[in-house]
Specification:
heterodimer, A: about 260 residues, alpha/beta, Rossmann fold, nine-stranded mixed β-sheet, two-stranded antiparallel ribbon, 6 helices, 15 strands, about 25% helix, globular, B: about 400 residues, Alpha-Beta Plaits, seven-stranded parallel β-sheet, 10 helices, flat
């Protein structure tokens, strides 16, 4: 048996650096880097590990976005991905999670994976909706928040998924979509060999002409949701520093304040 | 079909760069003194509003939608685990009631499960017009496929205008399937919901909580949203409003088939209290130094009846399991009281807890960023302050 694995990867701005200038109410993007969505790095690592476990398997990374996403795809090659595909077309622009999952699913129909792995969510949108969306468009089962792949063969995988109150062990028929959490592995750093491969491997770019799609379902036109406005969250000001001679005094002061506020 | 297009008039553009700064997607650049649009444009339109000379015009392609007037009713997904309705459902009932009232529509709670008679009866003690009860052995525990297929089927037949679910592991992965099946708009993890001109305005954090976005579903129905836990108040039992239970039978067995099978459930023994549910959280970071020191935080948490959380630094050091991690790659929490012990306050941590009602920070370093958001800051040694806190709380 050999697995054909496709990992969906998103290039995101390093969101911890994105800010709104409170005076002008505009976004400050100066010096904000583009990175691979951190959760997707666990998806890539897991796929590469499966390829090491199951001989003859292949990991393809699929992404959608403007041409600059190629740099992140090269990064994915340097940590062990075999092939990379970028979906890039003006028609895809402005897609919400519905249209994004539709477009990615259209590409999946060409790639014919046995297993699709994505990070649990992307850190810019934080929706966690694209993985399940792809599964429905392809009529596949899904398991979200996977923290371990226990067993896998041609037909089924047995995985653990992380819920609020514990781990659920689930058997899922393949082909299927898995979304993974950080707990699943520790991503490797790029190797020298990997970097060489990244240099040599070309990024396959598909436009809408390469896919079989309904134009009504693409990009902004195919998106039921639309952003109506963006704004800065109300700023949380710093409060009061507790003074005191020693730890005991400080502790007593703060507990008194909590009682006063009826927090405890 | 017309095409989406952002047009910048070279005659009107004065090169003020306001649009370039506004664009959330870095899709506008300056070409000399003229703003130009690149491939990253998502046609969100935020540049149009800031242009002082009205040089930017957004032509959105016409969208084929549905007949909006055919849809009515606010539905809340009655998430249950082991037959027990989850507390987030009560929050949604409270918020859903307001939305239903301002639309002059009915509020229904949809319960998928097995033998849910008693739980459904209890829901009628809240201000709920209908409880839609769908019982089947296959629906006893959550499974993505049958849950999504059964709800999609009912949605297609009954056409609610709004569906709300908790932004829990189950709610998020399940509604995402339903939204695709019925081609509805779905907005994740909302923290604000409001009706304006009959339309649901959904506000949610994006970019790691640094930015808020308001999302609409102009031409599709239902308008679906997952809602962050602990943002809205729970509804209280008020004797109900004369609501009724309606049992809906699943007549097509195909809807109940699943390609996933639960083999077992391993309860996380380490987490006696789920931190996302806790009203009080005591969290430790790098400053805790070693795993044994978390016992001190547990003691404080026990004294307060709270749970123990951690920063990524502590989790990555292997001092405490990942299920305790608060922050961007962990859990988002919003307790009444959050006590950060030896946590410096990386932005990734703060976005996961800055909606807490009251924050206490204890840190040796007076310049630690955590103090910037703390309601009360204590500069001092965690190992001296925490034992004193425990004493003071026990003496209160």
């Amino acid at each position: 048996m050999a697995l054909n694995i496709v990992v969906c990867m998103k290039q995101v701005p390093d969101t911890t650096e994105v800010r709104i200038n409170p005076e002008t109410n505009t976004l400050i993007r100066d010096g904000v880097d583009s990175i691979i969505n951190p959760f997707d790095t666990y998806a890539i690592e897991e796929a590469v590990r499966l390829c090491e476990r199951v001989e003859g398997s292949k990991t393809t990374i699929l992404s959608m976005g403007p041409p600059q996403v190629e740099s992140s795809l090269k990064d994915a090659l340097s940590v062990g991905a075999d092939e990379v595909v970028l979906l890039s077309d003006r028609e895809f622009a402005g897609a919400d999670t519905w249209a994004t999952s539709y477009t990615l699913a259209a590409a999946m129909k060409k790639l014919k994976p046995d297993l699709i792995i994505t990070g649990k969510q992307a850190i810019d949108g934080d929706t966690a909706q694209v993985g399940p969306g792809i599964a429905v468009h392809l009529d596949m089962p899904q398991v979200c928040y996977v923290s371990k792949i226990r067993e896998i063969n041609d037909e089924v995988a047995i995985v653990e998924r992380l819920l609020e109150d514990g781990h659920e062990v689930v058997e899922v028929k393949l082909p299927a979509v898995l979304t993974v959490v950080k707990e699943i592995n520790e991503p490797r750093l790029p190797s020298l060999k990997g970097k060489m491969k990244a240099k040599k491997t070309a990024v396959t770019v598909w436009t809408n002409d390469d896919l079989d799609t309904d134009p009504e379902c693409l990009g902004l036109t195919g998106s039921p949701t639309q952003v109506s406005k963006i704004f800065s969250p109300p700023k949380r000001g710093g409060g009061e520093m507790i003074d005191g001679e020693n730890a005991q005094e400080k502790a007593e002061t703060v507990v008194a304040k909590l009682k006063e506020l009826q927090v405890i | 079909m017309s095409e989406n297009k952002l047009i910048i008039s070279a005659d009107k553009c004065v090169g003020c760069t306001k649009c370039v700064k506004q664009c959330p997607f870095a899709a506008l650049e300056m070409d000399g003194k003229l703003a130009v649009v690149n491939d990253s444009c998502t046609f969100c339109g935020s540049c149009v509003d800031v242009c002082p000379t009205k040089a930017i015009i957004l032509n959105r392609a016409e969208q084929k939608g549905v007949d909006l007037s055919a849809y009515a009713g606010v539905w809340v997904f009655g998430e249950q685990k082991n037959g027990k309705i989850q507390s987030v459902v009560l929050e949604l009932i409270n918020e859903g009631r307001k939305l239903a009232d301002s639309l002059d529509e009915k509020l229904s709670v949809v319960v998928l499960g097995n033998d849910m008679d008693a739980a459904c009866q209890e829901l009628l003690e809240y201000s709920v017009d209908y409880v839609l009860q769908i019982d089947a052995p296959e629906l006893a525990d959550y499974a993505a496929e049958p849950y999504a297929k059964v709800l999609s089927d009912i949605v297609s037949k009954r056409k609610p205008s709004i569906i709300l679910a908790g932004a829990t592991s189950i709610g998020r992965s399940f509604l995402a399937r339903v939204a695709v099946e019925v081609k509805a708009g779905l907005t994740a993890d909302c923290t604000g919901l409001e009706i304006c001109e009959k339309m649901l305005h959904q506000t949610r954090p994006a970019f790691g909580g640094n930015i808020m976005a308001t999302i609409l579903t102009p031409n599709h129905r239902p308008q679906m949203a997952t809602v962050r836990h602990k943002v809205f108040k729970e509804a209280t039992k008020n004797g109900g409003c004369g609501g009724k239970i309606e049992k809906i039978a699943v007549d097509d067995n195909k809807l109940l088939t699943s390609r996933t099978k639960r083999i077992e459930f391993i309860t996380d023994n380490e987490t006696t209290i789920n931190i996302a549910e806790a009203d009080i959280i005591v969290s430790g970071g790098r400053g805790m130094g070693k795993p044994e020191n978390f016992a001190l935080l547990e003691e404080l948490a026990n004294a307060l009846g709270g749970a123990v959380g951690a920063s990524r630094a502590a989790v990555d050091s292997g001092w405490i399991p990942y299920s305790h991690q608060v922050g961007q790659t962990g859990k988002t929490v919003g307790p009444k009281l959050y006590i950060a012990c030896g946590i410096s306050g990386a932005i990734q941590h703060m976005v996961g807890m800055n909606s807490s009602d009251t924050i206490i920070a204890i840190n040796k370093d007076p310049d630690a960023p955590i103090f910037e958001i703390a309601s009360f800051g204590i500069v001092g040694d965690v190992f001296e302050v925490v034992p004193e806190l425990i004493k003071a709380i026990k003496n209160k």
